[in-house]
Every structure is written in C-alpha cells, then in structure tokens.
C-alpha cells in the first residue's frame, strides 16, 4: 500500500477515535489556569487601579472613596512637578537604553575577539548583573559618599571635584550619578545577550565582505548589524520597560531628590501613595505609566513588522 | 464517550484549580488587628521603632517582660519597625483595618492617624485623672476634648557638644557660628545637621529648632506663616552654616553621629534619646549638653504617644497595659530606660542617673519651652506641609532659588494644600 493509499484508506474504529488532547477546547483548557491567574493577579488589580484613578481615596481610609471623574488626571497634568517627572523619566529611560545597549554592544564586540583570559573576563563582566539591586544601590551610595567615598577622592585628585562633594545631593549631578550606576548594572546583561547574537553571525559572510574589500565599519554595518538588529531591538524594548519600572535603585540612592531632580514616574507614584497617602492620584500616575508602556510596546511591534516586511522585500 | 468523559474531567480539574486559587485569594483572615487569643491568654502587639534601638531596645523588652510577668491573661509582644519607615508601615496597616494593637507614634503620624479615625479614643478605657500627667506635653494628646493617646516619651532638643573640643559651650548664635567655624579643619567639622531630601523627616526636626529658636513659627494656629520674617531669619542661619562648610555636607544622620562619637563632629542639636544612645554606644566619649544658643529659648521636642489601634479586638487589654505603664513605679523604670527623655508623669531622676549624666537637668528644664514638631492648627497635614517646606528649603540650599523665594513658594504650595 502506497502512502497515498494509506491516507485514503477508511479509518478503523481505533483510528477514528480522537485523542482526548485533540479537542478544539484543549488549548483553552491548558491556557485556562494561566488565564485565571493573570486575570486574578493582574487583571483585577489593574481594573481596581483604573477605578481608583477616578476617585479621591486616602491610604488611611481606603474603603471610603469619592468618585471625582477625571479630576486626578487634570490635577497631575496641570502640575509642573508632574511634567518635570515625565521629563526626568524620559531622560532616564532614553539614557539607560542608549547607555546599556551601547556599552553592552561595545563590550560584546570586544569579548567576541580572541584573546588570552577571555573566559575569565566574560565571567567578571556578569558580576554587576548578578548583584542584587539593593546591594548595587548601597555600594554606589558609599562610593559617592561626600566624606569617604572613593569617587569624590578621585574627582578631587583630578581636579574635577563637586563642591562639597555631595554628588547625590546636587540637583545637577544626582541624575547622572544614578544613570551611571544603572548602566553599570545593566550592561552585563546586554553584552552577554549581544555576544550570543554576534556568535550567530555567519563567518562566511564576514569573510566574503572582507574579500570584497569592505572595511571594518562597512562589514559591521552590512553584515553584523543586520544579524544582531532584532536582538538589539528586543533588548531596547526590555530596557525601556524595565527602566520605566525601576524603583529600588533610585529610591535608595536619592528618594527622587534633591528637589525632584531624580523623580521618575514610579518614585512619584510611591510618594503619592505612601507619603502623601493619596491613592487616587497615585493610581492616575500609575495609569499614565501603563499607557506609556503600552505605547512603547505598540511602537516596538510596528517597527519590528516594518523591518520584517522590508526584509521580505 | 470516553473523550467526553476525559474532557469533562479536565474541565472539572481546571475549574477546581481556578476555584482553589480564587478561594485562596478570598480567604483573607477576618481578624482585624494583630491580637490573638489562645487558651484564655490574649496576645497583644506593641509596635515601636525604639525596640530596635541598640541602647534602649533590650531594656524596653525587659520592661515589657515585667508587665507580662504581672499578668495571667495578657501578653504584650514587641514589634520593632525601623524609624525611617515606621509611620508608613504602621499607618498603611491601620488604614487597611490591620496592624498592631498598641503603637508608639511620633507626632506627625499620631495626628494623621487620629484625624483619620484610626486611633481608639481612650476616655472610656483609661482614667487618666488618677495620674499626675505632665501638663505641657499631655495637652497635645487631646483633640476636641477626645483623648487619643498618652505620652510614652517626651524628648526635648538641646545642643550636644564634645567637651574635649569645646570646654565652654557657646551661649549665643554668633558664638555658635564662630565655634563651628574655628573647629572645622581637615576631616573634623564644627557642627552637623541633616540637609538631604532623603532624610526629610530629620531635616524637618532640625530646621524646626532654627525657626522656633529665632522666634518664628510654622503657623499662628489658624493660618500658615511659613514665609514669616522670623522663619526666614532662622532658616538663613541654618543656610549660612551650610554655606560656611562647617558641616559634613551630604552625610546622613547615621554617618555624622558616628563622626560625633569619633570626635570628628564637635556639636549637634539632638533630642534627649540620643544621650542614652551615646552612653551605650560610646561610653568613653566625653560629651555634654547645653541649651540651644539661639535668640529665643524655644525648641522642638519629640513627643511620642502610645495609642490603641481602633481596629484592635483587644482594646480593654491594651488599656490594661497603658494603665500599668502609667503606674508610678513603672513610669520610674521607663524613665530610667529612656534616659534624658521624660515620660507621661512627673518622676524623680535617680542619683545614679544624675551622676552618670549630670546634664539630665538641662533637658528637664527645657520641657516648658519645647514644642512638638507639628504645624499647630494643621497637625494632621503636617507630613504634607513638611514635604513642601523641606523640598523648598533644600532647593535654596542647593542654590536653585534664594531662600526668601523658596519660603514664599512653600507658603503658596502649602496654603493651596490645606485650602
């Protein structure tokens, strides 16, 4: 019996019996527990947050809410401090993404070369990523301490010392200090991921480019970048979302100060909820963060699809 | 047929799993506070940041043990919550109808909690008439004729100085400034105070002394007076010291207190609780205490009431503990533990304490001129006003605005806040 005949042959009783896992409901059954979990632990709190954002609710009396419609949103967008918070968040996120992906790419390119002790260097590079965020924040705070911090000693020695040495208490230098710390913690992850992407670049293409007389920059642009571009895009998306959400590092280093110069959305949210005890305002700020994250994800999807279409052409 | 059975079984399993998860989420305990009853013994939780104080914490635990030994049906357990997050942690719990049965609050949080109805009125639970309560601090425990707390600790602010570096303490602000300047050299600083936004509550405590010490006030009881000329003068004095670099800029309280203990900071304005802490942590440090040498004898005081959580299911038992704490011998024992602080009632200091810390009388003499660090007339809104004032004062310290503008801005923002 040929394969075609086998396919056309009438099925036996046993053959007709469908697998219990072959039902069209089966995928839903497998997805069910996860869906219930997400609905309960993310959907319900999100719906509650949406509701809270339209109310005036105090942390001290959370069961007694007053419906105020869009008042919280009008208030926060009318507040210059909140607009500053949005600007700070934007600067922080863009700098974190550019810094961590840029530094990660640079390190990955270096680690992709052959040299003695490469394995040890690769292992050492991952240390900042392995360190807990709280430990990183405390170490950075000690290093930046105006009295005995090594950073101030060094800056003083090279004639670049900050007056008084209080970097984290300066509205000019606090945000850059936090950014450097954040990038220091993030770049190992991006470098490791990009290193694996670099190792997937076909050698024959690189050799062909070299034989065609392409220089290093053109080889990187025409071959390497084309291969690692999707990975860079994914990393940029992840870094963006993580940077919008980042709390502990900023909170431990400056609590959003001085004078709000390091206050990002999540820091403002926390301060409104737990310092000012205004859950409604905090929920409205949280919703702004959710909308920004959704816009970033949607934008990323659009860019990816456009790139895929271009690739197909 | 079998397929249908299997499918039903799978649907049932998934539904059951979902219901279990749902039930688990909804099975929150009905109990409101942390109190519990087991075999006729009611266990109460008493939350205080001082339980974590290395100098006083263990002694306070012994004091609680004495109460527990005196009772058959009540046990009080200490819950130590760190000071920086104490108010936030406990108020969040109490706002959710949970939390400890007994709480030692600081004034701003006490006012916020009593305003929100989170504290049980004590009038029907504790008969305070039978105790000789200190009048000045106790008047802040009553709101609209309703008593919400009893003083657990009252600690006045004074000037701590290193007696090896400063044989005679300054008696005027000019002397104070000159002394701070003359002692600042290398890694030694003449003075230390809090000046970072990360220590908002601490900055508020520190600037309170400058404002009131120069004759100012945050309010006249009905209106905010944040930008009053006297306040500007006091805060200018604070800023002048900052600008003169006589303090370790950027150092937090933990750091500069360690520096004080090491002889690297000569003067510090602090409350009486610090004296006991220093004695325990740095027994060899030769320090003393004098009144703050500002033009007006008026300074802050840490008033820490003990209150009963409105959500507690064991209010009677909690009241029993407060009554025990107010008994003369237990007040005396508490006074010994707290050192330079005062307690709810008038007590006599032991000769041993006076010999060990002869400056204790300085603190006692300041009681009549000390005020809790709240905005009078706007007590419940003090944490929000504090945030506004501290942010603007720090903006002036950083040179972002001049001090007068900063106080005008703070006045405007705080007035908008309180309506």
From TrEMBL, chain A:
Keywords: Cell membrane, Membrane, Transmembrane, Transmembrane helix, Transport. The chain crosses the membrane at residues 25-44, 90-111, 123-144, 173-201, 222-244, 279-303. The keyword Transmembrane helix applies. It is a multi-pass membrane protein. InterPro entries: ABC_transporter_permease (IPR051393), MetI-like (IPR000515), MetI-like_sf (IPR035906). Residues 1-20 are annotated as: Disordered. Belongs to the binding-protein-dependent transport system permease family. This is Sugar ABC transporter permease. It comes from Jiangella anatolica.
């Amino acid at each position: 019996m040929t394969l075609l005949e086998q396919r056309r042959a009438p099925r036996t009783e046993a053959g007709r019996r469908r697998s219990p896992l072959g039902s069209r409901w089966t995928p839903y059954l497998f997805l069910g527990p996860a869906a219930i979990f997400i609905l309960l632990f993310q959907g319900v709190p999100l719906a509650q947050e949406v509701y809270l954002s339209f109310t005036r609710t105090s942390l001290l009396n959370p069961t007694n809410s007053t419906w105020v419609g869009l008042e919280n949103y009008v208030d926060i967008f009318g507040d210059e401090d909140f607009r500053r918070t949005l600007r700070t968040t934007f600067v922080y996120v863009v700098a974190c993404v550019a810094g961590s992906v840029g530094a990660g790419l640079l390190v990955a390119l270096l680690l992709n070369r052959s040299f003695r002790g490469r394995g040890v260097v690769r292992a050492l590079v991952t240390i900042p990523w392995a360190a807990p965020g709280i430990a990183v924040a405390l170490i950075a705070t000690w290093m930046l301490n105006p009295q005995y911090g090594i950073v101030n000693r060094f800056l003083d020695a090279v004639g670049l010392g900050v007056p008084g040495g209080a970097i984290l208490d300066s509205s000019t230098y606090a945000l850059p200090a936090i950014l450097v710390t954040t990038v220091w913690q993030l770049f190992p992850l991006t470098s490791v991921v990009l290193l694996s992407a670099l190792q997937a670049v076909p050698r024959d293409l690189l050799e062909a480019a070299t034989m065609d007389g392409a220089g290093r920059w053109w080889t990187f642009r025409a071959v390497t970048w084309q291969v690692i571009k999707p990975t860079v895009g994914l990393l940029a998306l992840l870094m963006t979302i993580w940077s919008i959400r980042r709390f502990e590092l900023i909170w431990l280093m400056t609590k959003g100060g001085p004078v709000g110069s390091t206050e990002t959305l999540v820091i403002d949210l926390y301060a409104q909820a737990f310092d000012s005890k205004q859950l409604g305002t905090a929920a409205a700020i949280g919703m702004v963060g959710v909308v920004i994250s959704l816009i970033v994800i949607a934008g990323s999807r659009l860019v990816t699809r456009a790139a895929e279409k271009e690739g197909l052409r | 047929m079998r397929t249908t059975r299997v499918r039903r079984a799978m649907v049932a399993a998934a539904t059951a799993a979902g219901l279990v998860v749902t039930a688990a989420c909804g099975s929150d305990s009905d109990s409101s506070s942390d109190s519990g009853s087991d075999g006729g013994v009611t266990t109460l939780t008493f939350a205080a940041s001082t339980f974590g104080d290395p100098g006083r914490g263990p002694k306070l635990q012994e004091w609680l043990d004495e109460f527990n030994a005196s009772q058959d049906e009540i046990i009080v357990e200490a819950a130590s919550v760190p000071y920086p997050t104490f108010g936030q942690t406990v108020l969040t719990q109490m706002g959710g109808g949970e939390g400890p049965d007994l709480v030692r609050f600081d004034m701003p949080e006490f006012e916020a909690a009593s305003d929100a109805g989170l504290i049980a009125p004590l009038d029907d639970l504790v008969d305070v008439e039978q105790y000789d309560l200190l009048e000045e601090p106790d008047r802040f425990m009553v709101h609209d004729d309703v008593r919400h707390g009893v003083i657990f600790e009252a600690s006045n602010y004074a000037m701590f100085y290193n007696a090896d570096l400063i044989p005679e303490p300054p008696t005027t602000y000019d002397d104070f400034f000159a002394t701070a300047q003359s002692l600042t050299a290398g890694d030694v600083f003449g003075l230390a105070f809090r000046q970072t936004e990360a220590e908002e509550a601490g900055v508020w405590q520190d600037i309170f002394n400058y404002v009131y010490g120069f004759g100012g006030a945050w309010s006249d009881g009905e209106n905010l007076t944040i930008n009053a000329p006297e306040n500007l003068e006091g805060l200018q004095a604070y800023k002048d010291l900052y600008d003169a670099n006589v303090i370790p800029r950027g150092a937090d309280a933990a750091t500069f207190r360690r520096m004080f203990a090491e002889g690297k900071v000569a003067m510090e304005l602090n409350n009486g609780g610090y004296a006991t802490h220093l004695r325990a942590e740095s027994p060899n440090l030769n320090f003393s205490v004098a009144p703050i040498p500002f033009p007006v004898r008026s300074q802050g005081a840490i008033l820490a009431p003990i209150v009963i959580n409105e959500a507690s299911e064991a209010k009677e038992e909690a009241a029993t503990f407060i009554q025990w704490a107010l008994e003369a011998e237990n007040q005396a024992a508490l006074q010994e533990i707290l050192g330079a602080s005062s307690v709810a009632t008038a007590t006599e200091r032991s000769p041993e304490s006076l010999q060990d810390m002869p400056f204790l009388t300085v603190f006692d003499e300041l009681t009549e001129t000390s005020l809790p660090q709240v905005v009078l007339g706007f007590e419940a809104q003090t944490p929000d006003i504090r945030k506004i004032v501290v942010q603007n004062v720090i903006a002036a310290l950083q040179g972002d605005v001049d001090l007068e503008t900063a106080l005008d801005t703070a006045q405007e923002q705080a007035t908008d806040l309180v309506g």
